[in-house]
Fold Sugar kinase.
Amino acid sequence: MGFTTFGEIMLRLTPSEHAGKINSAQNFGVHYAGSESNVASSLAILKNQVQFVTKLPLNAVGDGAMRSLQSFGISTGNIARGGHRIGTYFIEIGSSIRPSSVVYDRAHSAISEMTFGELDWETILKGQKWLFISGITPALSKSCAEATLLVAKTARKMGVKVSFDMNFRRTLWKDKKDARSIFDAILENTDLLFGNTGVLKDVYDMEVSGANPIDQTISAIEKAKSTFGLEQLAFTVREHHSASENKLSGVALLNDKTTISNSYNVEIIDRFGTGDAFAAGFLHGLGQEWGLDKTLGFATAAFALKHTIRGDQHTSTEEEILSIFKGNISGHVLR
Amino acid sequence: MGFTTFGEIMLRLTPSEHAGKINSAQNFGVHYAGSESNVASSLAILKNQVQFVTKLPLNAVGDGAMRSLQSFGISTGNIARGGHRIGTYFIEIGSSIRPSSVVYDRAHSAISEMTFGELDWETILKGQKWLFISGITPALSKSCAEATLLVAKTARKMGVKVSFDMNFRRTLWKDKKDARSIFDAILENTDLLFGNTGVLKDVYDMEVSGANPIDQTISAIEKAKSTFGLEQLAFTVREHHSASENKLSGVALLNDKTTISNSYNVEIIDRFGTGDAFAAGFLHGLGQEWGLDKTLGFATAAFALKHTIRGDQHTSTEEEILSIFKGNISGHVLR
Amino acid sequence: MGFTTFGEIMLRLTPSEHAGKINSAQNFGVHYAGSESNVASSLAILKNQVQFVTKLPLNAVGDGAMRSLQSFGISTGNIARGGHRIGTYFIEIGSSIRPSSVVYDRAHSAISEMTFGELDWETILKGQKWLFISGITPALSKSCAEATLLVAKTARKMGVKVSFDMNFRRTLWKDKKDARSIFDAILENTDLLFGNTGVLKDVYDMEVSGANPIDQTISAIEKAKSTFGLEQLAFTVREHHSASENKLSGVALLNDKTTISNSYNVEIIDRFGTGDAFAAGFLHGLGQEWGLDKTLGFATAAFALKHTIRGDQHTSTEEEILSIFKGNISGHVLR
Amino acid sequence: MGFTTFGEIMLRLTPSEHAGKINSAQNFGVHYAGSESNVASSLAILKNQVQFVTKLPLNAVGDGAMRSLQSFGISTGNIARGGHRIGTYFIEIGSSIRPSSVVYDRAHSAISEMTFGELDWETILKGQKWLFISGITPALSKSCAEATLLVAKTARKMGVKVSFDMNFRRTLWKDKKDARSIFDAILENTDLLFGNTGVLKDVYDMEVSGANPIDQTISAIEKAKSTFGLEQLAFTVREHHSASENKLSGVALLNDKTTISNSYNVEIIDRFGTGDAFAAGFLHGLGQEWGLDKTLGFATAAFALKHTIRGDQHTSTEEEILSIFKGNISGHVLR
Amino acid sequence: MGFTTFGEIMLRLTPSEHAGKINSAQNFGVHYAGSESNVASSLAILKNQVQFVTKLPLNAVGDGAMRSLQSFGISTGNIARGGHRIGTYFIEIGSSIRPSSVVYDRAHSAISEMTFGELDWETILKGQKWLFISGITPALSKSCAEATLLVAKTARKMGVKVSFDMNFRRTLWKDKKDARSIFDAILENTDLLFGNTGVLKDVYDMEVSGANPIDQTISAIEKAKSTFGLEQLAFTVREHHSASENKLSGVALLNDKTTISNSYNVEIIDRFGTGDAFAAGFLHGLGQEWGLDKTLGFATAAFALKHTIRGDQHTSTEEEILSIFKGNISGHVLR
Amino acid sequence: MGFTTFGEIMLRLTPSEHAGKINSAQNFGVHYAGSESNVASSLAILKNQVQFVTKLPLNAVGDGAMRSLQSFGISTGNIARGGHRIGTYFIEIGSSIRPSSVVYDRAHSAISEMTFGELDWETILKGQKWLFISGITPALSKSCAEATLLVAKTARKMGVKVSFDMNFRRTLWKDKKDARSIFDAILENTDLLFGNTGVLKDVYDMEVSGANPIDQTISAIEKAKSTFGLEQLAFTVREHHSASENKLSGVALLNDKTTISNSYNVEIIDRFGTGDAFAAGFLHGLGQEWGLDKTLGFATAAFALKHTIRGDQHTSTEEEILSIFKGNISGHVLR
């Protein structure tokens, strides 16, 4: 009775020197990450049964990704091996007024050339509780768009609930109409939507009202609910102060009840993978049947806490996240 | 006419990567530290004659601790060698809302199995001015509790002044009554007490009044003075904003005169060893016969400055600490 | 139908600097290793189903060991969590005339305080093909000696074959009679013995004849066969030239047939875990039903190849080991 | 039609460990830097034609400086090789209340023993648009003071505009009268002056009025204009909050028009080379004929942005600096 | 009157840890390398005028390659910028019986999608003395094969001599007939051929005679001379002992005179880029008009010396290579 | 009753990357070393009372040298502080046919500008057993030459035995006659001479006979004995195979008895400081009154063993060196 996530995992290369630049890096720190594998690793660390499904090249770099996934306790038995390469991206961690930046080199990756039929999805999804997918995978290629939709449909058909994080990678789409068209189809098969105000504006030109980011997010979540006909939505709220400091909150709407989380001002060590930490935290809370307030509170604490951890992976335990949720944010040493 | 400190020095292992986690560390940075050896190294760097007394295993790791101590100019000639192991601890440096945390592996260390009689304390303490001990050593084992008390008594008898930092490591004590009982006996032989509001509450259930942390500390220091019958007390004041930022002050009471230091808002590089920096700074000021205001000001400047230095050791020179004390805290480059 | 190994996994700390010394190390490289877990990781990398059974403390360091084991694909579901600490050892990698050396700090580890009854061995061993144990675990404590023997007996009873590597850690035994006594009992439950000439001499005072190390090993293996009444024995042969260069071979005796492998002169990157690589290679060959010559050849190639890999773990794939076995040892670049 | 800068480039050694101290550094990070070479590298990264002129020893360290300069695309064809050593300096990066500090070891460097006549300046300066020099070079030695003045005069004579950054290194001058005397002569040959309120006070005892640092800088720039008879002046404004945070602005006066830039609050990664980034940005704007507002705005954005980049070199592209100038300082990730 | 090389430069990622494996690397060391750029950097370090021509993506990784090339003093003014990605490869440095291995990820690189017409080759080649190309570029794509041939023809027509290193990357060709066909056309435009016995066998099934590798190479070079109608040929000779030790020599034939170099037994730090060091050394000798013996001797010394240097680039100076050529190979310290 | 050594300690900078080059180093490893301080650290590690006398600048780099010296247990109480700089040198560690090389930047160091009268040598030398000096210090400056001679004379006068290592740094002397002249004067005050065949030839044009290096060294030692009128001489014998491998021996002559040590073939990690390890080992043996054979055997074992240790310092314990002396050179792991 576990979780399945499906998508791309990439080789992430980050200049090893603190605050280093890509163009003069002498060493790159190595991580393997991607939205859906990040959700998987968080769920595994929270002691859930999780499998991650993707396709990886049959070489030592693909093996590296496998080892990384396994280290968290993620099941990798249904990962296809083959294709030509693993997608790669290079990250510069920003600081203060200097933004973080990403150079992608992900075209022609193994998963982007994969089709739905390569894997036996009925076997993969049997007995699963939740499927997690994101808006990135459909952007990778036509076959990936088809596969993502078919996986969602298959899950639905089999009684596996579908959660969808509407990530929108502008540069991967020729036209946002393409994104809208495939997202619409996925949303018809979605039980739980993760998102935020910005992505709804970017993809659906959805205008929101409200005097502050929280109110705007409430407005957005209500519009999304009615527009897409969904009953479960969980949105992150991010106020940018600088590359080093953000204010973070969460808003969720479940079966007509809207909840707002605490807000956290955090100094940022690594901003990547934070939305994934939120999604994993929320799914974990649902799995634990914690009720909406605790579930959103836990998800938002995870979201905030991830900003203080290097790499895309959120490696905090349930106990550590709950401690933040309970308000232990003033930094007393734990001995 | 120097200083002697007695206690445990441990191997401190910290993930080498900035803000790294213990569970995925590929490298650990190596320090050797402990409350009493930290006080010794600070005093040595401030150009005092200092010896540190402990017991270390006769192997390469014990040798590493010896080399570390010697590098600061600490006399190590009275360190016993033998026993089975050096105590070890693992540190995760927190950041923002994420607290620092410590995993201890210190049971069965050489010093914890040591007895008072293993060393010739009369020779060791001959001609010394100050002994520094802390509440940690009595917590290590029954023989350590006995030894600490006997060392304090011997010092007293020989005219060496005794300073006692009432550190309280909750997890090392079965019952706080045990701590209270040995602390009471030590306090009878104490000339100068280091502490803070929290520890008095934890160990002695001492309630304090006051609208703010400074006032509360004044209240605490006065209660401690009357309760324990002491004439010299120096307390740190810490206000936690987050794991990355604290507000720091000091309060001291000497011969009925109470003084309050400046306060410092500091961003934290490494929070460990800061109380030890305060104690060393205070002892140094007494040794220099600077008078209470300068002594407390210097100790508090050292306390604050240590937060910006990696490792448990406070490696700042007297000139650097005095410069902070004089108010040079706006970061002009020293060329 | 897989493999189960049982024993201690430790935190291995190696000075990060190439050829660095423990007493002046500024950083330690982190590995988690132990004879039985090394065998498990090799078998997992060779794509076998493997589980490793041990006890680990419930803290971040124990979590680190878990993550390391999982990264190789080892099943960790039957690892007990609890106790006080993980055993630790420090390694200096030797070079040329300077020997490698080890400082152990393994007393009081979680597994050393563990009893047979803490785990449900009948469930653990159900359906397993091979159990692997070594002579190290019985040396850790009385309860470990009992547990090891009981595990072997349980396996035997359940039809799981028992392989035993007669590792002998001199410093862990008060008297070698103690080792002999427990080894005797284990040998009565052993199907396959791993060893070498030296250990038989050390533990059993077994004298061997022969003009060269290979002949001496044949002599030893035959004596062991008759002394212990075993049908399957596989021994390593090591000729020390220096800390940087060894000559390596293997000898095996299966059902009265003795075979000798090729010999390899290797330059050594890391000498640790090499016997474990041999055992894993041999078990893998048996599992693949390759016949004695290929099985021994593969095991010896793995034994030799491991010397060129840093860390205790042998991370070579089956293809890489087979390539050595086929004689590709002249270093042509694989593109 | 490019830029020429002339001065000293040094070996900069910075403890590799984040926030490390010189006296216990195990590794030093290596940069090659100096005010005039920093201006050259910024200009080269901004895709200008730049040459840097200096003298470097003919050894592997001198070669290292050459490689560093070339890597940015700086022309090094007119660098003299010879002399005895490269100047060296050691840096401790401050944090919070702890100031950054510098230990110089630059006496007897190759350039300090160089004379004007060693190079053919008429050939070097032919067809150049701007010469950049600073107040540091004249401080190195008598021959350097003479050379700097002669280079400025030669440039003037040949129609190359002269920009002069009035850096004042207190410890390099016996008496500030010496500095004033050579600065006066250089200023007679200067077209564009870089400076700040502090240096005018230090060297010329120039008192300024104004309620805040911006107003004080306007006052200083107007006094400098009338005192030195200059038409182009660009000054930085720095408000120190701590070693980790500064508020930064710029003020310029061109042909009787005074402009004030935006201000930036920045968290500091590396404070060194920031004034050089300002000068390079200003010269770049003039070269692009951007007009005063954009030129000063760009220079100040470069000044602020450099604080977030490790090393003395400002490695940001024109696009990155313009983005800051346009107000993108809230740290949105660039994908 | 300089050298032009044309081909692909790639991002080389090597596990940072000495002898590390790709699948568990935590950090990758960064180099930018490729056969033709390696020849360019060697020639530049030998103080020749060199330009390198390629196509690089317009992102921070492409900028990194530019900075690396410039650091050696290579002219990069004719490098096209654009396309989608830089080719990448991962290297495991072998040791002893463990071979080095390479994982390529170079498909779809900017240069592989480039055409001859994108650059103005007549301008590029004007006044050049030598063009260097290799057999790798034609293997990248059809357009690259065409471009390489057209570049060679253009050079020939303009009086620029053409040197061709017959590198053969098996995995990049569908059929070796394709290689042969394009190589034949290039050879018609070749003045100087670099190669070895192996490549002639692989591509042309050319059988050689001779009792030892030197004699076999003489046989190969004579056959190549008559088969291809060439007057200048320089071949490397490599005898593999292990991944850590090779014996290296050179054989050249110029205008009917055959010469054999000294042989060197070397321990290998990094085996990559060694053939390129040979080619650069030979071209340098021709440029210096040293005569055949010194030219081949220098090239072979460079070939051998490169094996002791990390990275693909041969960074030795002319003085250092000449010293090897003169027989200073016993390792006396140079002070 | 201890040892005093007098001379220069320098900052040693070595590229951090294994086998790295100075001209492209991104990080330098930091050591503090010099012939006389190396002898002091070896003697301290061997548990002798040792003081090192020199002059160091009063800055953080000088403090670093102090901390390094103290870490070994060397007394630093008689080190003068002041002057302008610490001498610096850069090292490239050679490998195979590539020699190690050194770039010195030591002119104008604090000690080079020091005079005999700055220190109270009678107090320093009171009660000492041995003084150790070398031929390097007299080469630093005229005042150093005078000081070295006066120190030797003072020692002699006070009954402290003088040992002199005739190091000859060619590049520090204008004419070898200058060296000969000061060496002659020192030799008149010398009790024990360290040297080798090469230095006698270089400085004194002393020709030796003998079929092999051992015989030649015997010849040299006998000539030196008669030429200089000495009774105690200990010479190293080095046969260079490559930068990675040397054969090492020792020859000593005491009171007319000549002894030859075992020879060791070693693979070299770091060749620097090896002669100093020999001298320290020999002095230690004399101090222990071991007799000539064991003393020379120990010194030569130390000499050989140091080649396998990084840095100039020989950090082996007496037990480790004795083990080599006893023939344990085949690399059995010490557990």
About this structure: The mean pLDDT of chain E is 96. Chain E has eleven helices and 15 strands. The longest strand of chain E covers residues 232-242. The radius of gyration of chain E is 19 Å.
